[in-house]
Amino acid sequence: MSVKAAAARSAVPAGQAFDAARVRADFPILAREVNGKPLVYLDSAASSQRPLAVLRAVEHYETRLHANVHRGVHSLSQWATAAYEGARETVRRFINARSVREIVFVRGTTEAINLVANSWGRGHLQAGDEILITYLEHHANIVPWQMLCAATGARLVAAPVKPDGELDLESFRAMLSTRTRLVAVAHVSNALGTVLPVQEIVHLAHARGIPVLLDGAQAIAHQAVDVQSLDCDFYAFSGHKVYGPTGIGVLYARESLLAAMPPWQGGGDMILSVSIQQSTYNELPWRFEAGTPNISGAVGLGAALEYLESLGREAVAAHEHALLLLASERLASLPRLKLIGTASDKAAVVSFTMDGVHPHDIGTILDSEGIAIRTGHHCAMPIMEFYGLAATARASFGCYNSAEDVERLLEGLTKVRKLFG
Amino acid sequence: MELKELYRDVILDHNRSPRNFGRLDPADAHSAGHNPLCGDKLNLTLRMQGDRIEDLRFEGQGCAISTASASLMTEAVKGRSLEEIARLYEAVHALLTAPGGAAAPDLGKLMALAGVAEYPARVKCATLCWHTLNAALERAQAPVSTE
Q: Is residue A232 among the annotated active site residues?
């Protein structure tokens, strides 16, 4: 589907105010009831829901176009290839990469980071080197580096945060050294919603010639991402956090870096020719896509990005920011409720605890009201430890949420307090 | 499923005022349980007299189901023999994992946990204390080290 077609089918005609109810109607799952109540979905930071535009694009691909890509001379294979490579071009445009050669399809953010750790990392790190991350990272931006450090003798170091959940930029600056080989940080923290000062981070790192990887899993759906203006070297994100399917994601890598990186996985599609003793590797980006890829996933991701473009990314960001302000204010008004993470620049994520009630119980009680939130450590145990917490409750918002969802959350939390006293 | 079936008054009471909370020192055995999904942590200490649990305490942090289950368990197993505890564990496990299933009639206050079976995501919260107890009992029976 072209941008134009997507815009024509958009729930929000250009020039009109953002209509969350009409956007909600684009997402079939949100019409269902859960435990006898209309669903209030506040777990988009874990996985967002899919609009009809994505479901239809995937169905169209599966029912009309599917064959293997880059292989057949028959029509289906050519159509499938066009759909797959068309999605790559949509991704390129969406993040404003210079070339599709810089767009590698992967399973998700986790695989993207593992690709960089294995391919770029093993060639660039040795004993005594350092990788600098922050205490805000998701485990996906910690564990691959730990494994790389174990293999190379390098050391993983993490910059601390301030009590409000903002990165301690002074400490970060001080931890950049002649030993630092890579900076790998979240664009947006999944546990707290903190937006990191990535522009400043990239500037500081590049001043020392250090490449920067941004984990964009939590940012991609919620603000405009322009890899050229960010000037980052790697950017990773997942399809299912931006209204696309699971099992598809993207690694953006600056072409000069990617061209010098050895393949990570070997197999079909990543080669030009193979003899028993040696192979000639394919061009970028296919060199990094061994085996038959998730073609329908890529098609769905392309449709998801076009859908988001059709809503207007600024309009979505403004809508979500209004929800963040409303939810923060309303939740803070509840007695014995504490917001965790109150950075000045935040995505629409509200993490909180309630005195005398474990987050897991909050989650179960809200679920009985049809309200889906995340509870636990959010795969970010270091930041939980920083706050001395084993878990928080987390409500996260997407383009389909509304002020009414916030009120339903408030009612649910009032019920929690009533039950637990 | 009504929420009150899960959060029965007995559960809420034992969550608010857990029994046998704390740590025995000295103890014959201790064990630490951890539920990575929700971050629940539970430390159990116990003293044996022959093949019976003479006394036990637990401490840690967890959800209402996890805390109440541990509290109820300590009351249920104190003074019981290993054999009795093994039978009790089987019965509790059946109660927690068989929605709507008939439970053994002699579980007493532990029956308050019957609602958990309807909430698959919460079964692990209720069983954490029992796994921790089993680990502690294994240690209590292990031969004394001569190092």
A: no
